[in-house]
From TrEMBL:
GO terms for cellular component: bicellular tight junction; plasma membrane. Belongs to the claudin family. Keywords: Cell junction, Cell membrane, Membrane, Tight junction, Transmembrane, Transmembrane helix. The lineage of its organism: Eukaryota, Metazoa, Chordata, Craniata, Vertebrata. One of its GO terms (molecular function) is structural molecule activity. This is Claudin.
Amino acid sequence: MTSAAREILGLGLCIVGWVGVILACGLPTWQVSAYIDGHIVVAQTTWEGLWMNCVVQSTGQMQCKLHDSILALEPHMQAGRALTVLVTLLGLVALMVTVVGAQCTTCVRAGKAKSWIVLAGGVLYILCGVLVLIPVCWFANIIISGFYNPKVPNSMKREMGAALYIGWAATALLLLGGGLICCSCSCAGDGESGFPVKYSASTRRPTSNGEYDKKNYV
């Protein structure tokens, strides 16, 4: 696989991971009600997210309420908000940087500067993956600790929601895509060309007196 193909593949994975981060940030399913009493039918299900809490009735009706105060939130909720928003903005910056330094674009002249720009984009995507991993693992640790804590009543115990799994998948895509972008940059720097370069030979025609024009030899 050429460096350009690795670069395009890595950028595609990073974009999908970045969209996954945005989706996980907005979903209210970071933690959900735990069914541990053996009841098949329950009256309502509780979803808790970074921005709102939702209650889903057994009839299918859903009611959501935004968090009233940011300062009243628990530390892991505040950190989750800050880091996911930061990754959303940082992913947009990484996308613009990578596109500017990509081999398939002509925003910057080919050379070491272009390689350094695309390398910076790959590093930014890897940083995004690490930053997303922090709140996701923090939430998972709190949920698992509370689930196995005998002092916590069963009605207050929670399970990991879909948003956490989306966050883990987005982290893997960002890390893998960022690594591919960085590898494509190193390969391109070693002299591997991502796109073929065509050279056209100049045609020299003789003049009226049978001699070649001297400007062809300059």
